[in-house]
Amino acid sequence: MPSASRGIADLLVALRRRPDVAALVPLLVFGAFVNAAVMIGLILMWTHRWHARLGSMLTAVTLLFFVGLALARAVVLVFQRARKDYRFVLALIPLGFGMWLAHRSYHLVVA
Q1: For residues 63 and 98, what is the distance between their CA atoms, to the nearest angstrom?
Q2: How confident is the model at residue 57 (pLDDT cuts 50, 70, 90)?
């Protein structure tokens, strides 16, 4: 194997064993889908309902943010107990990148 591809392979092997990467990658992929979903009318109505109930959009967003953090922490704890190899998480990177790229391209074309 050439030196450059060997370096990338070593990096991927090192990354797939890190629990912080196992938490961050799904969070970014989930964020890509949430960011795109917020533009859908049904999700917008749901967000506005929470805004009306809580009295502040900042409160609604903060509440959802902390729920997401708690879920991410729970996922990390489950996988820490199950195994030390998170290689499946690295497979989500192209999915998240594709969603972010499609979402940003849409805004670039429309605006």
Answers
A1: 28
A2: confident
